[in-house]
Amino acid sequence: MQPFPFSAIVGQDEMKQAMILTAIDASIGGVLVFGDRGTGKSTAVRALAALLPPIKAIKGCPINSATAKDVPEWAGLKTKRVHETPTPVVDLPLGATEDRVTGALDIEKALTKGEKAFQPGLLARANRGYLYIDEVNLLEDHIVDLLLDVAQSGENVVEREGLSIRHSARFVLVGSGNPEEGELRPQLLDRFGLSVEVASPKEIETRVEVIKRRDAFENDNTAFMLRWQAEDAAIRDKILKARKTLTKLKTSEKTLTDVAELCLALGSDGLRGELTLLKAARAYAAWRDDTALRRAHLRAVAPMALRHRLRRDPLDEAGSGTRVTRTVEEVLG
Amino acid sequence: MASESWIHAALALQLLALDPGLGGICIRARSGPVRDRLADLLPPIAQRIHPTISDEALFGGLDLSATLASGQLVQEKGLLATPGTLILAMAERATTGLAARLAVSLDRNNDHCLIALDEGAEPDEALNPKLAERLAFHVNLSHCGLQDTDDVAALRQGRVALKDVVMPADIVAQVTRIAGELGVDSMRAPLFALRAARAHAAFTGHAKVTQDDLEIACALTLAHRATRIPEPETAEEEPPARPPEQDNENKGEDTLDLPDELLLDAVRALLPDNLLEQIAARKARAGRGNGTGAARKGNRRGRPLPSRAGRISDGARIDIIGTLRAAAPWQTIRRNASGRDGLQIRPADIRIKRFEEKSDRLLIFTVDASGSSALTRLAEAKGAVELLLAQAYARRDHVALVAFRGTEAELLLPPTRSLVQTKRRLAALPGGGGTPLAAGMVTAFDQATQATRRGLTPTIAILTDGRANIALDGRADRKQAAADAQQIARILRASGTDTIIIDTGNRPESALRNLAQTLDAMYLPLPRADAERLSKSVAAALGD
User: Fold this and answer.
1) Fewest Cβ atoms closer than 10 Å to its Cβ: which of A153, B54, B390, B394?
2) B111 or B78: whose pLDDT is higher?
3) Of B179, B186, B491, which is closest to A314 when you measure between CB atoms?
4) How confident is the prediction for chain B on average, in pLDDT?
5) How confident is the model at residue B374 (pLDDT cuts 50, 70, 90)?
6) In the structure, what pLDDT confidence band is assigned to residue B123 with cuts at 50, 70 and 90?
7) What class, spelled out in words, does domain A6-198 have in CATH?
């Protein structure tokens, strides 16, 4: 069954905005969605795939290379034909073994032909695309270590049986989870560009609308998909347009100072906060079809770009999102 | 005469067989004759799983013996690969990890459904909420005796095809409203209610969902999720809920004019009398008061876990069988390559054993050294700490000491096992000044957080006479001091740290009792206790 369409998700505007921003500029680096049970986290992440414009890749390449010279030797590919393929969105299940994630020797060939061959794993398939981890805070520690390492270097290295394979593995991490069930290590948190917190809608009309659409999705699938896939396509077109606008966007010196001041006031660790905030604000401006970056853009994306980069303060009951908003008001006025 | 819960269990299983998209059912019953009778209703072809099932069994993997015997790759299919019903026995013991795996597979396709047999005895022993959320039904048969059961008919086909059942237009809004009244936050609940109503209509042979169907569906799917008891009088809430009625005129006959109150009554009848206590138990922290630390993974001792690839390093132990299994498929290649016969094992094959062990516990003594804790009381507290420490050494516990007096708290002793060091620091503990209780709790909380990060399981023991009079900012303000203490207590509770409050005052202090309630902590009034009694009481409270 096709996933629930993105545009048919009622409310949850911040989450949808974050996903659109990361689709406009993949270098922002992924989205983390944290929230209660039954708030549509998983639905939204699964729907993201339909929003992403297709990429051009060599046909049959296991790592979706853009040009023939990037195709790894072990793939044994003869064709140089380029075709259009959907942006890969690869699911990393919780029970995945290390072999499955990084790739390993091809057991079938080893047994039947006595040949050494490499069988690419999930990281290869996710190259140039998205890696989605549901319940990311429950992922086994050794898989997290491995992901961190690959995400940092952009390269996956497999050494086994005298086989030494390295292939590029650049992917955007998208994760969802329920914070009550376990914390995420700060190192992994930092890998996510944007983070959003979702809650169940409180107004009865919104809730009714959610149920109605879900019910239609389940019981009247064809008509429902027909209606909403058109909307999804409209968003996709707008994303493509925003990508073009992004290249022409002007960023003034003053905005850069604003960004730096904001991050300084919040005491976020490292410079990743500044970079992400800037990129996210630029993507947001492009999405709004503006030609120059302004304070309003910074204000709109600051919470999602910074809230997971703050030192945790146990005495602050309001939560880090409120802290960011408060500081934004103080710094930007 | 069959009891209501028994009838509901039978009906829910019937609906589930009709529409697996309902996710499943959680049946809470100790194993016994009642559950055995229910077994007749369970689908005959269902896979049984248990809480410690391995990922390989769930998701599949290489079937080594078949592969080696045939020389061809034989993949074993996991249980989740084929659609069907899964029966999870001892469901209350399912770990978060397993619950997440099952939840994802329930989410992904509608052909799986799960029957969770929950054998929990205590209110806080229950099916993991992540999984419970994805199961439409929840039936409690704990109070159901054999005389309450009834012969159950075998599963029947629905009389009307599911997809032909007509859903009146106003139902969606109504079910959502009801869920809101009951304080059900999740959006899955009303969806399940609609689905169940449809299945029930199909089952009883209604071409259109009727009042009957809806009542029973709401009762079955919403009652156990309720977090508040709706007011019987909803008259004044009616007007804002009316707008959807505008549709009525357009749709004509396609509506079911059913007052909310009727549906709410159906659900209310099923609400347990002690709903509020049950909610409290649901929110209770996991694994408290059993006298041991929390589980963590290690490679030396404890309960074995699945092994994984790794390097032979200091302290790691090799899983020989696992290593041989990993090496087996490659033997042909290796023999060809090296020209040697016999078993050939490479470093990459090495599998390391992993164990789940209980982590060490850290007792953080937070001692009131203010003037109001008269010097003699302080001496007794010191004695008790020393005695506890002596026992703690035998139990491999760590001890830390925080003292608060004047305007601030001080960490006198970082976590240690050294008895000598503790005695020396305790002897030097000065007394006098105000009682900054909140500051003491903050320091203790900091220590607890750090200890958790290092893999220890902290317990905080607060020894005070409870007249907090210094606020967090150091001002002498009795009211603010009490408010600060309460606030920190809420944070401590939310963090799930175990706490004991020992009232060393001459008369039990009501403010401390309140604080203990906020903390969900044990409260021990110990006036005139000597060191020995003090340490015994604390040890007992810790569950040793």
Assistant:
1) B394
2) B78
3) B491
4) 76
5) low
6) low
7) alpha beta
Domain positions in chain A: 6-198, 253-332
First CA to last CA distance, chain B:
46
- The encoded tokens of residue B521 equal 């902590």
Range in A31-40, B120-129, B405-414 with the lowest mean pLDDT: B120-129
Q: Outline which parts of chain B fall under CATH 1.10.8.80.
A: 158-284
For residue B409, the SS3 value is strand
Q: What is the C-alpha separation between B30 and B46, in angstroms, rounded?
A: 20
Facing B104 at nearest CB: one of A36, A134, A212: A134
Class in CATH terms, B361-541: alpha beta
Beta strands in B225-321 (DSSP E): 295-298, 303-309
C-beta of residue B24 within 8 angstroms of C-beta of residue B137: yes
Three-state SS string over B136-147 comes to: CEEEECCCCCHH
Contacts of A162 in chain B (CB under 8 A): 337
In sequence order, which ranges of B408-507 are alpha helices (DSSP H)? 419-427, 437-453, 478-495
Interchain contact, B173 vs A138, CB within 8 Å:
no
Q: Do A110 and B109 touch (CB under 8 A)?
A: no
Measure A155 CA to nearest chain B CA, in Å.
20
Which A residues 245-304 touch B at CB under 8 Å?
Answer: none
Q: What is the pLDDT of residues B179-237, one digit of tens each?
A: 888 888 888 888 899 889 989 988 888 888 888 888 888 888 888 888 777 765 444 44
The reply to whether residue B187 touches residue A200, judged by beta carbons under 8 angstroms, is: yes
Range(s) within chain B of domains with CATH label 3.40.50.410: 361-541
- Please indicate if any CB of chain A lies within 8 Å of the CB of B448: no
- The answer to whether B304 and B353 have CB atoms below 8 angstroms apart is yes
| The domain over range B158-284 is classified in CATH as 1.10.3370.10 | no
Give residues 98 to 117 of A whose Cβ lies within 8 Å of B.
Answer: 98, 105, 107-108, 110-112, 114-116
Residues of B in contact with A134 (CB under 8 A): 100, 104
Any idea which of A56-65, A216-225, B39-48, B509-518 has the lowest mean pLDDT?
B39-48
Q: Hey, is the C-beta of B241 within 8 angstroms of any chain A C-beta?
A: yes
Class for the domain spanning B1-54+83-156: alpha beta
Task: Answer whether residue A278 shows pLDDT above 90.
Answer: yes
* Nearest chain A CA: its distance from B100 CA (Å): 7
Q: Which range (A215-224, B28-37, B292-301, B500-509) has the least confidence?
A: B292-301
- Between CA A209 and CA A218, with CA A215 as vertex, the angle to 5 degrees is 145
CATH number of A253-332: 1.10.8.80
Reference A143, options A170, A126, A122, A120; nearest CA is A122
Of B236, B263, B99, the C-alpha closest to B177 is B263
- Residue B330 neighbours by CB distance under 10 Å: 23
Whether the predicted pLDDT of A287 surpasses 90: yes
CA distance A307 to B77: 42
DSSP state at residue A73: G
Catalytic residues of A: 272
Is the Cβ pair B187, A210 closer than 8 Å?
Answer: yes
Q: What is the pLDDT of residue B437?
A: 85
ipTM: 0.77
Closest CA to A242 of A79, A47, A25: A25
Nearest C-alpha in B relative to A96 = B55
* Nearest alpha-carbon partner for B40 in B14, B60, B64: B14
Q: What share of chain A is helix, strand, coil (3-state, %, to 5)?
A: 55, 15, 30
**Residues B332/A114, Cβ–Cβ less than 8 Å:** yes
The alpha carbon of residue B333 is apart from the nearest alpha carbon of chain A, in Å, by 5
How far off is chain B from A17, nearest CA to CA, in Å? 21
